[in-house]
């Protein structure tokens, strides 16, 4: 009961902080970086190139990539939301196993790599450098319990935001499809309506969000991933 109460307090705290000025967008950019990393990695794995990644104070992001063909371009555009959802659940699974140090290390490595090779705009670079410095400072100067709590809160924040960002693109695809971000781009490239892509993004996010919620409720990540694998293989 005590762990469940603490989890509920964490979720409430993250939700409140995410809506505060300045600090809310700052934290939300962690999820944006995961989203843009999904685009960038997919482009690279498909034989394309990553020209730049930009992160903005509005929490929006942009990955400028070059592709070998139309299919690669479609896959790159599609990858952002599923990648962010998957990585958010992996972060939740890791903190549930007590691996906060590894989660922090992965975040630090991703931030450093993005700063060196991808991020090219001033806002994005300032955010990335400050986020990396904060992670290192927390690890070096915080008590271990406080550092672990910080990483747990970050994992929960990314887990929640992976769902809310998918909900936003779904809502936009219904109300103003031409402004629906990745869904609108996919609609232009595939002739499949933005509403369909928005629905797909939301459905996959709901599945991953539910999986993360079960982990936070105490279910073993290994058992859940095994069950999920068996449903699709």
From TrEMBL:
UniProt source species: Salsuginibacillus halophilus
InterPro entries membership: Peptidase_M50B-like (IPR049500)
Transmembrane helix keyword on record: yes
Pfam families linked to this entry: Peptidase_M50B (PF13398)
Taxonomic lineage: Bacteria, Bacillati, Bacillota, Bacilli, Bacillales
Alphabetical keyword list: Membrane, Transmembrane, Transmembrane helix
Name of this chain's protein: Peptidase M50B-like protein
Transmembrane segments: 7-27, 73-94, 101-119, 125-142, 154-174, 194-219
């Amino acid at each position: 009961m005590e762990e469940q109460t603490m989890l509920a307090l964490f979720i409430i705290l993250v939700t409140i902080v995410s809506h505060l000025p300045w600090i809310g967008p700052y934290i939300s950019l962690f999820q944006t970086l995961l989203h843009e990393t999904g685009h960038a990695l997919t482009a690279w794995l498909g034989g394309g190139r990553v020209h730049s990644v930009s992160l903005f104070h509005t929490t929006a992001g942009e990955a400028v990539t070059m592709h070998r063909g139309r299919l690669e371009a479609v896959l790159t555009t599609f990858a952002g939301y599923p990648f962010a959802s998957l990585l958010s659940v992996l972060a939740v699974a890791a903190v549930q196993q007590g691996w906060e140090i590894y989660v922090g290390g992965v975040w630090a490595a991703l931030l450093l790599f993005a700063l060196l090779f991808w991020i090219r705009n001033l806002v994005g670079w300032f955010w990335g450098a400050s986020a990396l410095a904060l992670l290192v400072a927390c690890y070096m100067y915080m008590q271990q319990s406080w550092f672990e709590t910080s990483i747990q809160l970050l994992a929960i924040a990314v887990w929640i935001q992976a769902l809310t960002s998918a909900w936003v693109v779904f809502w936009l695809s219904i109300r103003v499809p031409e402004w629906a971000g990745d869904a609108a781009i996919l609609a232009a490239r595939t002739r499949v309506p933005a509403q369909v892509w928005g629905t797909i993004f939301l459905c996959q996010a709901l599945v991953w969000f539910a999986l993360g919620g079960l982990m936070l409720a105490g279910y073993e990540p290994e058992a859940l991933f095994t069950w999920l694998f068996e449903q699709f293989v």
